[in-house]
Amino acid sequence: MKISRRIVTSLVAAAWLGAAAPSLAAPPVSQKNGYAIDGFDAVAYFTTQKPVKGQAAFSSTWRGATWLFASAENKAKFDATPEAYAPQYGGHCSLAMTEGKKSSGDPQAWRVYNGKLYLNGSPNVRDTWLFKIDQNIKNADWWWQKSYANL
After folding, report:
1. Adjacent-strand bridge partners of 120
2. How far apart are CA 40 and CA 44, in angstroms?
3. DSSP three-state, residue 128
4. Same domain? 72 vs 93
5. Residue 119 sits in which domain range?
6. Do 93 and 139 sit in the same domain of this protein?
7. Which residue of 6, 12, 89, 135 is surrounded by the most CB atoms within 10 Å?
8. Among 48, 45, 80, which Cα is nearest to 62's?
């Protein structure tokens, strides 16, 4: 029985896409006390430029984590585009991620940079991270991508 090249190519592509599917899994979100960002409002970092505790009355579930917000308006903004507001590296410490390590981020040690929210393990760690921010983001992005490729 003769199999056409098109069928073989389709089968190989389907097998390859099937093997690649695990890398498309949602990235993990760091959680403290049962909440992403320890219950702080991810949107508030962008709108008020400060950490604000969320309220259980305004909660959403995204990527397996519960997110709290200070208002219905902030919840609606997050629900519309969570990727725009969620911290990078799943809320893990941005400096630790430059070495491929996952460590909890502190909601009080944050920075919005180039439209993205970054958390660090402490204010002192954040200050170290800020010293070489662009290089640190490049390194952390590489490690974060690598950590997911095997999910």
Report:
1. 106
2. 8
3. helix
4. no
5. 87-151
6. yes
7. 89
8. 80
- Start-to-end CA distance of the chain, whole Å, equals 38
* DSSP-based three-state secondary structure for 25: coil
Alpha helices (H) along the chain: 5-20, 44-47, 72-80, 82-85, 94-97, 123-131, 133-149
H-only helix segments in 21-61: 44-47
Residue 22 in domain: no
Structure tokens at 14: 């389907």
Q: Are residues 114 and 135 in the same domain?
A: yes
Indicate the number of domains in the chain.
2
Cα of 103 vs its chain's centroid, Å? 13
In 3-state terms, what secondary structure has residue 56? strand
Average pLDDT over residues 34-49: 96
- The b-or-e profile of 51-79 (16+ CB within 10 A means b, else e) is bbebeeebebebeebbbbbbbeebbebbe
Backbone angles phi, psi at 107, to 5 degrees: -60, -20
Inside any domain, residue 128: yes
Residues 107 and 94 grouped into a single domain:
yes
